[in-house]
Amino acid sequence: MKTDTPAHNSLNPKNDRIVLVLQGGGALGAYQAGVFHALHEHDLMPDWVVGTSIGAINAAIIAGNDKTTCLERLKEFWNRVSRKDSVDMQKIPDQARRFNINLSTLDTVTRGVPGFFSPRMFNPFAIGLAVAPEQASFYDTSELNDTLTDLVDFKYLNAGGATRLTVNAMQVKSGQLASFDSAKQAIGVEHIMASGALPPGFPPVRVDGELYWDGGLYSNTPLDSVLDDKAYVDTLCFMVDLWSPGGPEPRTFDEVQTRQKDVMFASRNKRHLESYVQSHKLQQTMRDLYKQLPTKLKNGMAPDTLAAMGADNTLHIVQLSYAGRDWGMALKDINFSRGSIEWRWDQGYQDTKRAIEQAGWLSFISEDTALVVHEIAPYVFEKTLEK
Q1: Is the distance from CB of 59 to CB of 36 less than 8 angstroms?
Q2: Residue 190 near residue 144 (C-beta atoms within 8 A)
Q3: What is the mean pLDDT of residues 7-27?
Q4: Confidence band (pLDDT; 50, 70, 90) for 376?
Q5: Burial class of residue 110 (count of CB atoms within 10 Å of its CB; 0-12, 13-18, 19+)
Q6: pTM here?
Q7: Strands 164-171 and 48-52
Q8: What is the arithmetic mean of pLDDT over 294-318?
Q9: CA-to-CA distance for 273 and 227, rounded, in angstroms?
């Protein structure tokens, strides 16, 4: 539990640490922006944001600006990368809406997304020829470099701003996961871009001499960064899932590809959470035994031994899941149609508002409770929009 500032919010009366965990998912990341919008509106500003891929981009914008400007910067990013629809998506039937989205997605594939990525013209890589490692991709992401430089105040971020930032990437040569953490090092635009360098679409990014790809290749939900943290403070963690681990049996090629993506990138944290609880129980046993030791033995124990015993902290995880069906589109993560982006943002906002209204983390629990997971049922759509 944080003690440096007084309680100021009835939704967080004990001033617990607030963490926001953001998956990778391309255009689906607009849902994450809606989640943050609701948190910001209710003064539940995260103390720590952990992100991978598009989650790293959202996280960098949140952590890299002060409270008065971060939401506007986030809106500006999604406005820049969304594609204007040729028709009003709210005023056309479902089939016409789907046709418009297919055209928008095809345009993204062929021409890229302004402010994000563009196709490499006359690209030797596309026909199987060798190129420099930094150019081994179908698209060029230099425009994203400019966008992040515009929207993220890295000086503020690295000066010990209000929000800690952790982004994950995978080292290409070793296949190991790397965490770039503003609490431990200076974060630059290259760290954010490395976290979102998903091959073969996007090129690897070199950081301190090493090439990195998208952290989602190793683990798309960066909850481990929170579970492995040794701060031992009461924590309220909002975990945002963009991919569904469960789904219907696929019947078409597109449905098979969609199901494959969902399974590949969905959260697999159940086992990690079970291990976290077991570790917490073991630490509790160690602390109970420690209390029974003679004073002489207690005084002789090394600080790292005492630290390994942990503390009686509680982790609340509020699980928010994107429920858009997207017509079973395998390319739903590159559907940057403005109507789709706005719809996803609104769903994240509505789901988080309902989570805040329920505020399950305020319910009484015993002091020795290690973990509580609050699953928020997806929003029930009044319209048939599947964007």
Answers
A1: no
A2: no
A3: 93
A4: confident
A5: exposed
A6: 0.91
A7: parallel
A8: 75
A9: 8
DSSP code per residue over 54-107: HHHHHHHHHHTS-TTTHHHHHHHHHHHHSBPPSS-TTSS-HHHHHHHHHHHHHH
Q: If pLDDT is split at 50, 70 and 90, which confidence band does 387 have? A: very low
Q: Output the six-digit token pair for 272.
A: 């990690």
pLDDT of 308 reads: 64
- Number of CB atoms found within 10 A of residue 255's CB: 17
Dihedral sign from CA coordinates of 321, 324, 328, 332: negative
DSSP state string for 274-299? HHHHHHHHHHHHHHHHHHTS-HHHHH
pLDDT number for residue 302: 72
| Integer Cα distance of 284 and 261 in angstroms | 39
Three-state secondary-structure class, residue 235 = strand
**Are the CB atoms for 64 and 154 separated by under 8 Å?**
yes
- Helix or strand (DSSP H, E) at 303: helix 303-307
At 62-113, the pLDDT tens digits run 999 999 999 999 999 999 999 888 777 777 787 888 888 888 899 999 999 9
**Spatial contact of 78 and 345, defined as CB atoms under 8 Å apart:** yes
**What is the rounded end-to-end Cα distance, in angstroms, of the chain?**
40
Give the residue carrying structure tokens 């109507």: 339
Q: What is the spatial distance between Cα 383 and Cα 47, in angstroms, rounded to a whole number?
A: 36
Q: Is the dihedral of CA 184, 186, 190, 192 positive or negative?
A: positive
Could you tell me which of 195, 188, 187 has the C-alpha nearest to residue 212?
195
